[in-house]
Write a structure and sequence with these properties.
Layout: H1 2-29, H2 34-54, E1 57-59, E2 63-65, H3 70-78, H4 82-96, H5 103-127, H6 133-155, H7 160-260, H8 268-300, E3 308-311, H9 312-330, E4 333-338, E5 345-348, H10 350-366, E6 372-382, E7 387-398, H11 420-426, H12 432-442, E8 446-452, E9 456-464, H13 474-489
Parallel strand pairs: 4-6
Antiparallel strand pairs: 1-2, 3-5, 6-7, 7-9, 8-9
């Protein structure tokens, strides 16, 4: 009866330790490093074995009966590394020596070493077996109890006949029963703990999904707003385009009708004037169609760039001839400036380069009512802007209406303008800057804008400074740097 009471107390103590360990893990060790949790679990198993000895039944002066091997049964089922089970067995054996160094204590030490070795071998063997948990735990419990009984009998700490006839018939069934009870109770605790963890993980996953859904909903709302804006901008674009298309078409239709009217023939002077108007209207229609086609080719990736020698003075002369009459008609000054270090020839696509500059100059003249329009060409180094190397900068500066800061980025997008009414007042499709930015990128460069509303704007086209081979030669760079230094020290 005494053995049953002691073993029952041992199970209660182990259950209490397990519960305390679970609380510590939940509130303290959950976020601890894995190595720390591993070391503490080993020390806890050894401490559990020592605690059962503390509440064990003492026979005589040195013999202790307890369930110190039960923690080893749990460790055999729980640990992934077999050597850990052996170390825990040795640790519990050493803990037995803390109660005295008698012969029975030494025998108890070797008993736990043997049981630790048994647990290590069972741990390794059961890993390769597809047994159920109940079968595995039954094998472990029976094996530990049998080997424990054999050790006690063989180590001779008490008379063999007394042990096998008086003690064993009581202790073995109770030990088997309580070992199984404790293992399955702990198993139930573990399953419940895993269920709680799964619920917590599921809640966390649901929270994460909810946050993602809210974020996705926000993105969808933003995209919906962008679609509405895009629809609005395209509607404005179509309205502007219809106006731009109707004006020259109406002129062509009306004037061609007058020219073909045989009942009321026009004079030769009127015919010539009408022909000029029809010609200009046709060119305006062609320009609008070219803008739309250029934008579609750029967006489809079918715009081809041909790098060739570009004579800058010739290009500047063409631009001057093209815009000089427009400047005179509007009473504006048109100035073209070229820095001293600009070479005579650069390498780029002459057609596309001139197209971008014409768009920029056309906008400058269109939105400038008084003052001047300046085209300046210079070389610049943009290392501080994250674009290493030398560039050629074409700056188109005007004293026009300017652009508000809020609209300086959107005006480069297709179908967008600083103000939908601007095109109705000044004319134009609103595609020039979008096409210009795309062409600048194809040329290997980019467009920049500086503007103040009511003061004016400066559009700058940057293209790479290339030699015939496609890069700037070192000698050319040194020559330009020397020329700049000479200009800085020369008297005004």
């Amino acid at each position: 009866m005494q053995f049953s009471k002691v073993f029952l107390v041992n199970i209660c103590v182990l259950t209490t330790l397990v519960y305390v360990a679970m609380l510590l893990h939940k509130y303290w060790l959950m976020k601890a490093p894995g190595l720390l949790k591993y070391i503490l679990s080993v020390l806890l198993a050894i401490g559990a074995g020592w605690t059962t000895m503390l509440f064990g039944l003492q026979l005589g002066n040195d013999i202790l009966f307890d369930l110190r091997f039960v923690p080893l049964i749990i460790c055999t089922m729980a640990y992934a590394q077999p050597i850990t089970v052996f170390l825990i067995g040795v640790g519990i054996g050493l803990a037995r020596l803390t109660f005295g160094l008698q012969v029975a204590a030494v025998a108890g030490f070797w008993n736990m070493v043997v049981l630790g070795l048994l647990g290590m071998l069972l741990n390794k063997w059961l890993k390769n077996r597809a047994y159920s948990f109940k079968v595995k735990v039954t094998i472990v419990i029976v094996a530990f109890n049998i080997v424990n009984v054999a050790d006690i009998g063989l180590l001779g700490v008490m008379p063999v006949q007394m042990y096998f006839t008086s003690i064993l018939p009581v202790t073995l069934p109770v030990s088997l029963l309580l070992s199984a009870f404790f293992v399955f109770m702990l198993r139930d605790f573990q399953i419940e703990r895993y269920r709680v963890i799964e619920i917590q993980n599921a809640n966390a996953a649901l929270q994460t999904q909810t946050e993602k859904l809210i974020e996705a909903h926000g993105v969808l709302e933003h995209q919906a707003q962008q679609l509405l804006l895009a629809s609005q901008y395209k509607s404005e674009f179509l309205a502007n385009m219809s106006h731009e298309l109707r004006t020259p078409l109406n002129s062509i239709i009306a004037l061609s009708r007058l020219l073909s009217d045989k009942e009321d023939p026009v004079s030769s002077e009127e015919a010539a004037e009408y022909g000029d108007i029809i010609h200009d209207s046709g060119r305006e229609l062609l320009r609008l169609i070219d803008d739309v086609l250029d934008l579609s080719r750029v967006e489809a990736g079918k715009m081809e760039i041909t790098i060739e020698a570009v004579i800058l003075c010739e290009m500047m002369h063409i631009l001057n001839q093209h815009f000089r009459h427009l400047a005179e008609q509007k009473g504006l000054k048109f100035i073209i400036e070229t820095a001293a270090d600009i070479p005579d020839i650069v390498y780029s696509d002459a057609v596309r380069l001139q197209q971008v500059l014409r768009n920029l100059l056309s906008n400058a003249f269109k939105f400038t009512l008084e003052g001047k329009v300046v085209l300046r060409i210079e070389t610049v180094t943009l290392e501080e802007r994250g674009k290493a190397g030398e560039w050629i900068a074409f700056r188109v500066q005007d004293t026009g209406i300017g652009i508000s800061e809020a609209m300086q980025a959107p005006i480069f997008e297709a179908f967008r303008q600083a103000d939908g009414s601007i095109s109705r007042r000044f004319g134009g499709s609103g595609l020039g800057l979008s096409i210009g930015r795309a062409l600048a990128q194809l040329l290997g460069g980019f467009l920049e804008l500086e503007s103040r509303e009511g003061v004016g704007s400066t559009f700058t086209l940057y293209i790479p400074f290339r030699t015939e081979e496609g890069s700037c030669g070192a000698e050319k760079v040194m020559e330009r740097q020397a020329l700049r230094a000479d200009k800085q020290v020369s008297p005004a």
